[in-house]
Design goal:
Number of strands: 0
Distance between the termini: 22 Å
Strand content: under 5%
Largest sheet: none
Shape: globular
Number of helices: 18
Helix content: over 70%
Length: 504
């Protein structure tokens, strides 16, 4: 009996060692992806933030509002580029050259059709919103579509091959070049064109960077039968991406419709400062976690450990900075003025509400790579559609019942109400399909929220002892404390225990 037990343990030991090795490898890929893409995201957002503050001083609120409306429509249309095949390429077991070539021509052709439809719809959209100049701005939206489409294949290949370093360089380079383009055009007096041209130019810079980082020369061959399975997966991913893009832009369309361009400019400033970093973090999740989750999806324990690790890492970045935005909302908005020296101070309360909502939004986005990686794109579509429906309904009710004076505050509050409802459903889904309970998620998020509490207490005590002085000094101190909190969380790597994962 003892010999049989020894032989059994001898068979189990190599399997456990192999499981540990595979799990270590997946965690290393996640860590490398978060480090590279996370660093790129921070650099890109700081560059974007620094230049947009200057641009806001050179444009009127009406110009910012009109450009924001066009970019919102363009971003929604851009979600159709690739037709979801980027996600399909990442999770596909194998790919042939014929599939890559066929997908390239199919995607670019569809983008050209979309660009033509944009130009046809531009005058109608301009008349709908009562802003005649908007029609011409849609030319930039049309130009960007085939540029973005041509970059889908090389970017997807790099993501599939876990080449996070190259993707990071492409992202930073494109963002930096687009920011300089926007700043330069604003300085020479281009007005709203500075924003819309820079939006289109980002597609060109992304394409150039992608082709330099991962050269791809498509051959003149196309086979619809070869890509039918990828398109079948992709159209559901497209629906999810379209819903997600609408979620991030529907408020612009409704605020502009109900409250006008000036109110839209104020809402745009609040949303960009609070939610755009969270949206960038969501992109970081999908690019980094999706290929790893797809590899470990067959082993639920490994998937659960990768998910909780991702949650800890994500909150370590997002939570301190969201708290810093809430604390610094008043000095930030006091410093921002438009070309006519009108203040953006009325965006302070919306900024605080949206910063709090940003944390909930980021946590909810973790469910998407789990669903796609485990082969359940239909669940991601349902979740996105439900989110869009709840947000749109709430904002429509606000627009119909709340006057202009309180409109953008009420619109921001909708963002704070909807995510908790979705998180309840997501917790149930993760418990069912990933064997991870709410207590595991709470345990993973414990340290970030303790750090946030310490950050808030430190700032408030400092305000009592020192008082409120220069807004610039106050903003600098809050940002410094947030960076220290973030670094402390990222450097704190909790001890991982794989015993439970390898004992089953």
């Amino acid at each position: 009996m003892q010999r049989k037990s020894d032989r059994l343990l001898g068979c189990i030991a190599p399997w456990r060692g192999a499981a540990l090795s595979r799990m270590d490898s997946h965690q290393q890929h996640l860590r490398r992806g978060f480090n590279w893409l996370g660093s790129a995201m921070i650099i890109a957002k700081l560059t974007d933030f620094g230049t947009i503050l200057v641009v806001l001083r050179l444009l009127t609120k009406e110009q910012v509002g009109a450009a924001s409306l066009v970019v919102a429509f363009g971003t929604v249309i851009e979600a159709l580029d690739g037709l979801g095949t980027s996600t399909a390429l990442v999770q596909a077991p194998s790919l042939s050259r014929l599939q890559l070539d066929s997908l390239f021509w199919f995607i670019v052709g569809a983008a050209c059709v979309a660009a033509g439809l944009v130009l046809l719809a531009a005058p109608w959209i301009a008349s709908l919103y009562g802003i005649a100049a908007v029609a011409a701005y849609f030319l930039a939206v049309a130009v960007k579509q085939p540029l973005v489409a041509a970059a889908v294949i090389p970017l997807a290949i790099m993501n599939r091959e876990l080449q996070y370093e190259r993707i990071a360089i492409v992202n930073v380079g494109a963002t930096f070049a687009a920011a300089l383009t926007r700043l330069g055009l604003a300085i020479v007096g281009a007005g709203a064109w500075a924003i819309v041209i820079a939006y289109a130019a980002s597609g060109l810079f992304t394409l150039i960077g992608a082709l330099l980082a991962r050269p791809f020369r498509p051959r003149l061959q196309i086979s619809t039968s070869a890509i039918s399975s990828l398109l079948h997966f992709g159209w559901r991913a497209t629906l999810s991406a379209l819903c997600e893009t609408m979620i991030n832009n529907v408020h612009y369309l409704l605020v502009g419709w109900f409250y006008g361009a000036a109110a839209l400019a104020e809402f745009r400033v609040a949303f960009d400062l609070a939610m755009e970093p969270a949206n960038a973090a969501g992109t970081l999740i999908n690019r980094t976690a999706l290929p790893v989750f797809a590899k470990v999806a067959a082993v639920r324990d490994h998937l659960a450990q990768s998910l909780t690790w991702s949650l800890r890492r994500l909150l370590a970045v997002v939570a301190p900075f969201a708290a810093a935005i809430v604390l610094a909302a008043d000095p930030i908005t006091a410093l921002i003025r438009d070309e006519q020296h009108r203040s953006y101070a009325s965006a302070s309360l919306p900024l605080k509400l949206l910063a709090a909502a940003a944390v909930l939004r980021v946590v909810s986005q973790l469910a998407y790579p789990v669903m796609f990686g485990s082969g359940r794109p239909q669940m991601a579509v349902r979740l996105s559609a439900t989110t869009l429906l709840l947000l749109s309904t709430g904002m429509l009710l606000v627009g119909l019942t709340v006057p202009v004076a309180s409109g953008i505050v009420a619109m921001s509050a909708v963002w704070l109400v909807v995510p908790p409802l979705l998180l309840l459903w997501q917790a149930r889904y993760l418990r069912r399909f990933c064997t991870i309970g709410a207590q595991d998620l709470l345990r993973a998020s414990g340290a970030p929220f303790v750090a946030v509490a310490i950050l808030v207490a430190t700032v408030e005590v400092g305000r009592v002892l020192i008082g409120s002085g220069s807004p610039v000094l106050e903003l600098g101190l809050i940002l410094t404390l947030a960076v220290l909190a973030c670094l402390g969380l990222l450097l704190r790597e909790p001890r991982r225990d794989y015993r439970a994962a390898t004992s089953r």
